[in-house]
Amino acid sequence: MDNDDNKPLPGDVIEALKGGSKIEAIKLLRVSQGIDLKTAKEQVECYMDQNKDVFGSSRQRQDSSGGRFVFFVIVIVIAYAAYRYFIN
After folding, report:
1. Each residue of 24-51: b (16+ CB within 10 Å) or e?
2. For helices 11-18 and 22-33, what crossing angle results, to 10°?
3. What's the burial of 13, exposed, middle or buried (CB within 10 Å: 0-12/13-18/19+)?
4. What is the DSSP letter of 17?
5. Cβ-count burial of 9 within 10 angstroms (0-12 exposed, 13-18 middle, 19+ buried)?
6. Are residues 26 and 40 in contact, defined by beta-carbon separation less than 8 angstroms?
Protein backbone atom coordinates (compact mmCIF):
# COMPACT_ATOMS: atom_id res chain seq x y z
CA MET A 1 0.00 0.00 0.00
CA ASP A 2 1.30 3.42 -0.88
CA ASN A 3 -0.32 5.36 2.02
CA ASP A 4 -2.74 7.12 -0.37
CA ASP A 5 -0.01 8.33 -2.73
CA ASN A 6 2.34 9.32 0.10
CA LYS A 7 -0.24 11.62 1.69
CA PRO A 8 1.07 12.29 5.21
CA LEU A 9 -0.90 11.12 8.19
CA PRO A 10 -2.49 13.77 10.41
CA GLY A 11 -0.41 14.86 13.40
CA ASP A 12 -2.79 13.39 15.99
CA VAL A 13 -2.53 10.00 14.28
CA ILE A 14 1.27 10.12 14.36
CA GLU A 15 1.23 11.18 18.02
CA ALA A 16 -1.03 8.23 18.88
CA LEU A 17 1.42 5.90 17.13
CA LYS A 18 4.38 7.42 18.95
CA GLY A 19 2.47 6.87 22.19
CA GLY A 20 2.13 3.18 21.34
CA SER A 21 -1.59 3.22 20.52
CA LYS A 22 -2.00 1.74 17.06
CA ILE A 23 -5.73 1.14 17.55
CA GLU A 24 -6.30 4.75 18.58
CA ALA A 25 -4.30 5.93 15.55
CA ILE A 26 -6.51 3.85 13.25
CA LYS A 27 -9.66 5.28 14.88
CA LEU A 28 -8.39 8.84 14.53
CA LEU A 29 -7.47 8.29 10.88
CA ARG A 30 -10.90 6.83 10.10
CA VAL A 31 -12.63 9.84 11.61
CA SER A 32 -10.39 12.48 10.06
CA GLN A 33 -10.30 10.92 6.56
CA GLY A 34 -13.76 9.32 6.47
CA ILE A 35 -12.33 5.97 5.38
CA ASP A 36 -13.16 2.37 6.21
CA LEU A 37 -11.38 0.30 8.84
CA LYS A 38 -9.35 -1.81 6.41
CA THR A 39 -8.01 1.23 4.55
CA ALA A 40 -7.14 3.06 7.76
CA LYS A 41 -5.34 -0.01 9.13
CA GLU A 42 -3.39 -0.43 5.90
CA GLN A 43 -2.37 3.24 5.87
CA VAL A 44 -1.24 3.18 9.50
CA GLU A 45 0.74 -0.04 9.00
CA CYS A 46 2.26 1.35 5.80
CA TYR A 47 3.37 4.46 7.68
CA MET A 48 4.84 2.33 10.46
CA ASP A 49 6.68 0.13 7.93
CA GLN A 50 8.05 3.23 6.18
CA ASN A 51 9.31 4.48 9.56
CA LYS A 52 10.83 1.27 10.94
CA ASP A 53 13.58 3.23 12.64
CA VAL A 54 10.91 4.73 14.92
CA PHE A 55 8.40 1.88 15.21
CA GLY A 56 10.36 -1.30 14.32
CA SER A 57 8.95 -3.90 11.97
CA SER A 58 5.43 -5.20 12.46
CA ARG A 59 6.88 -8.66 13.24
CA GLN A 60 9.04 -7.20 16.03
CA ARG A 61 6.02 -5.46 17.54
CA GLN A 62 4.03 -8.71 17.59
CA ASP A 63 6.88 -10.74 19.04
CA SER A 64 7.67 -8.33 21.85
CA SER A 65 4.11 -8.14 23.20
CA GLY A 66 3.60 -11.92 23.06
CA GLY A 67 7.01 -12.55 24.59
CA ARG A 68 6.24 -10.37 27.60
CA PHE A 69 3.02 -12.28 28.27
CA VAL A 70 4.75 -15.66 28.11
CA PHE A 71 7.51 -14.40 30.41
CA PHE A 72 4.90 -13.15 32.89
CA VAL A 73 3.07 -16.49 32.90
CA ILE A 74 6.34 -18.40 33.45
CA VAL A 75 7.27 -16.15 36.39
CA ILE A 76 3.85 -16.72 37.98
CA VAL A 77 4.12 -20.51 37.57
CA ILE A 78 7.62 -20.58 39.07
CA ALA A 79 6.54 -18.37 41.97
CA TYR A 80 3.56 -20.62 42.67
CA ALA A 81 5.72 -23.75 42.50
CA ALA A 82 8.26 -22.21 44.90
CA TYR A 83 5.47 -21.19 47.27
CA ARG A 84 3.99 -24.72 47.27
CA TYR A 85 7.43 -26.29 47.73
CA PHE A 86 8.50 -24.15 50.69
CA ILE A 87 5.13 -23.91 52.44
CA ASN A 88 4.28 -27.64 52.36
Report:
1. ebbbbbbeebebeeeebbbbbbbbbeee
2. 170
3. buried
4. H
5. buried
6. yes
- Structural domain boundaries in the chain: 1-55, 57-88
Let me know: does 17 contact 25? Beta carbons within 8 Å.
yes
- pLDDT tens per residue, range 50-88: 988 887 765 444 545 567 888 889 999 999 999 999 986
Report the predicted TM-score, pTM, of the whole model to 2 decimal places. 0.58
Q: Do the Cβ atoms of 56 and 62 come closer than 8 Å?
A: no
Contact 4, 43 (CB under 8 A): yes
